[in-house]
Amino acid sequence: MATVDDGETTFMPLMNRIGENAAEFLRKAKKHTKAGESFTFASLATASGVPERKLKAWHRNLSRTVNNLGDKAPVLFTEK
What we know:
Elements: E1 2-4, H1 8-15, H2 20-32, E2 38-39, H3 41-48, H4 52-69, E3 77-79
Antiparallel strand pairs: 1-2, 1-3
Helix pairs in contact: 2-4
């Protein structure tokens, strides 16, 4: 499970560093999950209509970029 951050202040600085698929993952998570609300890939797939395998691929792309930022990376999701 993960929770989505409150939005604009965290997402926007990262948007110019990520590809379109990673950005789409963030948009889907933001649209279909309230701040602080838990979600899984399966629940996000159901809510967004995007296949779970595609969401996982988008998430991997996002993770690579966030990992490359190291300590400068914003916290987008927290695990519970």
